[in-house]
Design a protein that fits this description.
232 residues, Structural Genomics Hypothetical 15.5 Kd Protein In mrcA-pckA Intergenic Region, Chain A, Alpha-Beta Plaits, 3 domains, nine-stranded mixed beta sheet, four-stranded antiparallel beta sheet, 6 helices
Length: 232
């Protein structure tokens, strides 16, 4: 295993940050200063700033994020982050992707950078489904511009799925499934057709749902769920 990956598994830092630490000579393998690209085996002793580091098992959680929290490990504006909802001893864990401050729903948090990369890389086109509530009414035909791809300010979104699940004179609820993750993409899609979003909730990643998880609550993912996410 490459040394930067090993250090990341130990929770030292991200792979990119670990490359910097290695270049600064702060990492040794069996008493010798490590180099970028060095390999580590099971019997090797790795020290970072003179202290031994060992790989740990990854942690995987699913969280039902409420509004009013940002998807970050810290915030310079003093706002609450999703880590404030997790146990204090959870370790060096990161949210996978983002739900904006006013959005809610399914969020995965993990120490596994490979899974995070897999779920967020555009080439994998991982489907994410949202419940969207807009003011007023819209027809199924009115959703066609969103389905076929729409300009959200210099960028045309990819084709997606969208269908109405509830409607009345005051609001309409729609399920939207996208395979990319541009900043505030779903909100901007509806803004582009003149509709104001009053609720945005991610309800599925692939076929993984929030079933049985109250708003603000979390649980560990099962091994079957983790394996499934890697296949998306």
């Amino acid at each position: 295993m490459r040394i930067n990956k090993y250090l990341a598994l130990c929770g030292v830092a991200s792979r990119r940050e670990c490359d910097k630490l290695i270049a600064e000579g702060r990492v040794t393998i069996n008493g010798k200063v490590a180099e970028l690209g060095s390999e580590v085996g099971g019997d090797d002793v790795v020290l970072y700033d003179g202290r031994e580091v060992k790989a740990r098992k990854h942690e995987y959680y699913i969280l039902n994020k409420p509004k009013g929290y940002i998807c970050s490990v810290r915030d310079d504006k003093g706002r609450k982050t999703v880590l404030d909802l997790m146990p204090e001893n959870v370790g060096r864990i990161y949210p996978v992707g983002r739900l904006d401050y006013d959005s809610e729903g399914l969020l995965i948090l993990t120490t596994d950078g490979e899974l995070a990369q897999h779920l967020t890389h555009p080439s994998n086109q991982v489907p994410k489904t949202y419940l969207v509530r807009i003011e007023g009414t819209i027809t199924e035909a009115g959703l066609n511009p969103i389905r076929s791809g729409i300009d959200i300010g210099g960028y045309v979104t990819k084709k997606c799925k969208a269908h109405i699940v509830e409607t009345n004179k005051e609001y309409t609820k729609i399920h939207v499934t996208i395979t990319e993750g541009k900043n505030r993409e779903v909100r901007r899609m509806f803004e582009a057709i003149g509709k104001n979003v009053t609720l945005l909730k991610r309800i599925k990643i692939g076929e993984l749902t929030l079933r049985g998880l109250d708003r603000g609550s979390y649980r560990k993912l099962t091994q079957q769920e983790i394996a499934y996410l890697m296949t998306l």
